[in-house]
Design goal:
It is a single chain. This protein has 514 residues and is an alpha+beta fold. The protein folds into 3 domains: 62 residues, no CATH class; 273 residues, no CATH class; 121 residues, no CATH class. The protein contains 17 helices and 17 strands. A 5-stranded mixed beta sheet has the order 11-10-9-8-17, covered by helices on one side. The longest helix is centred in the middle third of the chain and has 26 residues. The two termini are 38 Å apart.
Length: 514
């Protein structure tokens, strides 16, 4: 993975020669951090480097193949149509929902989607493909006098694959388009089939082609969501049978969102350490608005040269995008919108998933139902107990970071200290954001640069002593001596790490003291 200085003007197809040093992609071992080592390993990437302007030279240009060039030009044209009619986060959200480009989304918008359990909407996946498929089927129904239904289905399948290529060909998009392709071919054949068998067949084919997909988080969550819909949607729908058609529509929308979440919740808690308490509400809002956004957005690409239709599409698209943003921001601000602190062994993921499935689908108060309910209750109790320990724990943690950074957690308060200034605090904030998901609390930053003596008074006094070049952290019965490595002129600054005298270097991960 090569990171190139953003000030360069290189384009896709340029061939470069660079003088650089490749370094293995490794996790820093800080609590709650994203497992980038495993993520990139599953993408076939094990090394990384940063290339600055002075380290790289342009060699020549290799023109992309005709299909790649056509797709790039089409993507650029569609992006320009959106940017001519929208701006700000409305444009960013439209790019993400319609074209799969999340580069313009700011941190606040991403946080709103994450905190409300709607992050999957930003990734073009099965929901988007299903909505586009329905729109194309409705549109094609007006032309059945010109083409047969079979021909229309084949054309729609071709358009879906073009859309998949256009949006980046991610595992979730490949899975969705491949699944719908197989379903369409099965329907055209006239043979009997079960949709869930098609789903497993597509998974098998994709894993044979690319085994790394099995470890991709998006692949896991998308297939689990689809399995949840196929297996639990109908039992959940039977819980309530509204007679009013409008209420029935919203209940079915709620049921399909809930059935998709049933199988993914344990895995999401394991990976992301948080649970969006109002995910049903946010998914219900986006179920309606995302369909309108996709419909208006795709219509805009067709009618952008027709002034009246263009203005109508832009108006509908803008209002839908604006409503999505303010609705998610409102849900995010509701009391208790997100529960943090979930960290538990992986063995609880399959136990929770299987027991939750049987608890929903089996007849209540049957013998097997009582057994699965007991397993679900025990596993849930274990997770809640572990979370409570994380919430109420008192500890001192030293993070693996280029600047000496450590935090004292006492119940719901986290005092974070850094041997640096406000700029260093901003750079280290992502470490505390990840840590705060696993050990929630109110974060207060403190700079210890140039300080000496007591720096925090709580249940137990925390002292920071700096004498004769030696720095020591004193808390409870712990005396933690810090030794700073020296930087040679030919060494990179990012290799400068604080070291602990015993037992290992901080490069091996964070250190906890209780």
């Amino acid at each position: 993975m090569f990171y190139i200085d953003s000030s360069t003007n290189y384009k896709e197809g340029d061939r470069l020669v660079a003088t650089t040093r490749l370094t293995p992609i490794e996790n820093k071992g800080n609590p709650g951090e994203f497992d980038q080592e495993n993520y990139w390993k599953n993408q076939g990437v094990r090394l990384t480097t940063f290339i600055s302007n002075q380290d790289v030279k342009w060699v020549d240009y290799k023109a992309p193949i005709l299909l790649d060039k056509w797709l790039a030009d089409l993507h650029g044209h569609l992006s320009s149509v959106l940017s001519e009619n929208l701006s700000g986060q409305e444009l960013a959200l439209a790019q993400a929902l319609i074209l799969g480009d999340k580069s313009l989304l700011n941190k606040e918008t991403k946080s709103s989607f994450s905190s409300t359990g709607a992050m999957h909407v930003l990734a073009v996946s099965g929901m988007h493909i299903a909505l586009i498929l329905q729109l194309l089927l409705i549109l094609s129904s007006f032309f059945y006098r010109l083409i047969s239904k079979h021909q229309a289905t084949l054309i729609i399948v071709g358009l879906l694959w073009i859309y998949a290529l256009l949006t980046g060909f991610s595992p979730s998009v490949i899975r969705a388009v491949f699944t719908f392709t197989m379903l369409a071919l099965a329907q055209l054949s006239g043979n009997q089939f079960k949709p869930i068998n098609i789903l497993f067949f597509t998974a098998l084919v994709l894993l044979v082609i690319e085994p790394h997909f099995f470890f991709d988080i998006g692949f896991q969550l998308s297939y689990l969501a689809m399995i949840g819909i196929y297996l639990t949607y109908e039992p959940i729908c039977k819980w309530i049978k509204p007679k009013n058609k409008v209420i029935d529509f919203f209940w079915k929308g709620t049921a399909i969102g809930f059935s998709a979440q049933v199988m993914t919740i344990p895995l999401m808690l394991y990976y992301f350490h948080q649970f969006p308490n109002y995910f049903i509400l946010s998914n219900l809002v986006l179920l309606v608005l995302s369909g309108i956004i996709l419909g208006a957005g795709l219509s805009l690409f067709v009618t952008w040269k027709i002034p009246i239709l263009n203005q109508l599409n832009v108006g509908v698209l803008f209002i839908s995008l604006w409503l999505s943003l303010i609705s998610l921001a409102w849900i995010e601000d509701l009391p208790g919108a997100v529960a943090y602190g979930f960290a538990f062994p992986f063995i609880l993921v399959p136990i929770m998933t299987i027991s939750l499935y049987y608890t929903i689908t089996l007849l209540p108060f049957s013998k097997i139902w009582l057994v699965t309910l007991a397993f679900f209750t025990l596993s849930l109790s274990w997770i809640v107990l572990l979370r409570w320990n994380n919430l109420s724990s008192d500890h001192l943690v030293l993070f693996n970071h280029s600047k000496l950074t450590f935090a004292l957690k006492e119940n719901d308060k986290i005092h974070c200290f850094i041997d640096g200034d406000s700029l260093d605090m901003r750079k280290a904030s992502f470490i505390l954001d990840a840590y705060n998901k696993e050990f929630p609390g109110q974060i207060q930053w403190h700079s210890i640069k140039g300080l000496n003596g007591m720096i925090c008074q709580g249940k137990d006094t925390l002292r920071w002593e700096s004498e004769k070049g030696e720095k020591t952290i004193i808390w409870k019965h712990h005396r933690i001596r810090i030794q700073y490595s020296t930087i040679q002129k030919n060494e990179d600054a990012d290799h400068y790490m604080p070291w602990i005298e015993h037992p290992k270097s901080l490069k091996n991960g964070a250190f906890f003291y209780y």
